[in-house]
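Person: Please work through this fold.
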Amino acid sequence: MERSLGDDSSPSPVDQTSTPSDPPDLSPTANTKPEQSSGNQPAGPGAAGEALAVLTSFGRRLLVLVPVYLAGAMGLSVGFVLLGLALYLGWRRVREEKERSLRVARQLLDDEERLTAKTLYMSHRELPAWVSFPDVEKAEWLNKIVAQVWPFLGQYMEKLLAETVAPAVRGSNPHLQTFTFTRVELGEKVQFISLQPLRILGVKVHSGQRKEQILMDLNISYVGDVQIDVEVKKYFCKAGVKGMQLHGVLRVILEPLIGDLPIVGAVSMFFIRRPTLDINWTGMTNLLDIPGLSSLSDNMIMDSIAAFLVLPNRLLVPLVPDLQDVAQLRSPLPRGIIRIHLLAARGLSSKDKYVKGLIEGKSDPYALVRVGTQAFCSRVINEELNPQWGETYEVMVHEVPGQEIEVEVFDKDPDKDDFLGRMKLDVGKVLQAGVMDEWFPLQGGQGQVHLRLEWLSLLPDAEKLEQVLQWNRGVSSRPEPPSAAILVVYLDRAQDLPLKRGNKEPNPMVQLSIQDVTQESKSVYSTNSPVWEEAFRFFLQDPQSQELDVQVKDDSRALTLGALTLPLPRLLTAPELTLDQWFQLSSSGPNSRLYMKLVMRLLYLDPSEVRFPAVPGTPGAWDLDSEDPETGSSVDAPPRPYQTTPDSNFGTENVLRIHVLEAQDLIAKDRFLGGLVKGKSDPYVKLKLAGRSFRSRVVREDLNPHWNEVFEVIVTSIPGQELEVEVFDKDLDKDDFLGRCKVSLTTVLNSGFLDEWLTLEDVPSGRLHLRLERLTPRPTAAELEEVLQVNSLIQTQKSAELAAALLSVYLERAEDLPLRKGTKPPSPYATLAVGDTSHKTKILVSQHSGVEAHSHSYSHSSSSLSEELELWKGLPHITSSAPELRQRLTHGDSPHEAPAGPLGQVRLTVWYYSEERKLVSIVHGCRALRQNGRDPPDPYVSLLLLPDKNRGTKRKTSQKKRTLNPEFNERFEWELSLDEALRRKLDVSVKSSSSFMSRERELLGKVQLDLAEIDLSQGAAQWYDLMDDKGSS
């Protein structure tokens, strides 16, 4: 773990710091040589010493055989002995290598120090003040202050760990009640070097920032013999850390500046990027030195440090009491959002080799995009040196300057991925440019990467939301749709949460969710009035329809202490899009409440920064370099057309209805306790077709999930189209892949129907049940009511409302549009909206009256939503799904209906679904029910399969309030064979609740249907007269 002096990345000799350690131990023989060389020493004691050494060595080797003897005595397998021996040998080999490297490095450092002290008049650690560097300034005066303060800082840390951290650890788990810190040392002076372990190598103060703050970067380096030992006496467990290195850039912000002493209101500190960390373990944690476990342990600790001191997290130290906007200082709003379009790369190097390197292949490139702690990974493009990704990511920028956009390109391999190059760009350049669309060269490799970077400002203006949403509808983005806003939630505290069983104090934590994105707070132990003071950030696709779900739970996640659901449209009407208040918790105590501050900001891209070059040769294309004064005028305007001129394929599209039903035998991805306990998965499905993508809901903890969701998409008859289906496991950080499959649309478009179980690829197990239906539009309105009724019967609660019609709009041109200010020609585009659905055309640069603004449907596929509008409203179409329902509906109503009986009638459809071996009944409604009291009844329908009267065969509809003609349209099923169904009777009772406080039900009428007398193969919707309890049989 110690850094080698020969490493290229090590600092220069001026800034080099050494690893603190004790002088190397001399061997026993080296210590005894002077004594043995003396001739006055008698031989007797020396011989006795040698005999004792031989006996000691023999005893140690005999002691090694004790575990073997014990294993044999206990009847254990030889494998246990071999495993223990392998672990011991691996640990010993790594330890010897580390000690040898440390001795060599220490010897080289000692020689260098001695040589430098002899040849130079002054130490390189004490450079004069006139020695400076171009980017940073030396601050030896600051290092002297740190050296003076360092011992007292160690005393403070020891007190903090003993009085604050240790009690918190003991209270977090009953098994850690004997946890103590036995030793805390932050490091002392290193031999031959008069300096403290923590040094500030350089200071840079940023000028030109806001006047109410001072911003500076400290290049810090900690190389010390820190020693922290802990002990859990109950389990005789000792562990610790001895020696650590930490290098990074720490940003310090002094704000706000005030007019009273101490002038500075607070100090904020954080690392802009993750610092480098190297730790030397001691005690039982020596097991972590085994190869493969050391890097894991360091990464876990780095994750903990990142969660505390790496952007967007920061440490705030208030210097004055009653400081205003502490939450804003602790977690300020981002400076902006950068939308990163990872488009393509070209000229990448080839890394794949075949036949032991004799045959050169290509590469399987993918890209990693990072901004601070935010990281994204693109998909892998197989066998391609000029990949096309076309993916979009959105990142929050907190500090400008300082943060960087880093893109690394790798070649995917089964063992270790090969590095192909990287590029870095300061986010300040994106802020200055607004929009950047460039090819960036890759450093450390060959080739270029194509990025389009857009700076999105944060606006507290709800009036621009519709403009942002319309703009986003025209943005092609994957794997996720573009965001319209961000939501920052400052979670402050809670009060009077309910206690656990036995009146025990809970350990509350909070889960905040928006759709499928969930974030969790830390746990506060043993209190019902916790203080969190944490911030959470969410991207919002449509704030008008989303809501924030808050769950306050005990740290075991099993006990819910309170809940809150907040519709986000409420923020749109708040001042400055901000809510700062107490919120009452539901499913909690009477006085339980939660204090939060919610801030919403819209993501706004300045249209003046966007440039859309015209395509040569297209109608309406415009040469921006032309200086013809007549261009843009109406002098040469063409005559107005009398009708549009779409191509012959316009309006001939079909609709594909996709039923995502269920999945089976999915692989389990969730792991607990570091992978020791195997969990399940939280699966959801992604669909991609015809340039559109859909996503199902997440089913929690289920390897055989049932979705029963329906999606609809407009498709054309172009050959070669495929439906791409991917299944993922939802996680807090990165979703795990559970498999994929593809379905060719040729079969579905030809047959009109497909219902299959599809095997998931690229995974060991799993299959997915899909049902695909082709819906062909028909230019007739006579059957619209029938289509609407069929949709109501197959509609599921977990899907969006099913469409009943298709509207196609061909947008030809516009004329005589007004000019912009300064008589500049506009860049027009059109937005068409029906209900909540809207689409935007492409933007034509510098177009004015007399210049045609064509959609390109005559030369492109009419399913392109940026060129032609296709909506599901207006002209009806007859669905090909559920033909048996359509048949029953057409036979159910007769123009000459019999009058209702004295108790009214109930309308039912009963048939047997032979494919699924189910008896199905649809309760459509009732009419002319009898009113016994002063108020109309609250009717519902109860169904029972006789002769069974248990709950297994009982079904009932929802209850309708105060009506004599209720409509239900609810479907019920019973799983049984056809022979068994013919032996049953269906008892249908219409009832009403007597009163709110009574459990009695008033019978309004009933009817018994002998299923043997009904044609269950062609069941029709019919009205049945209701009878009283005596006459129904």
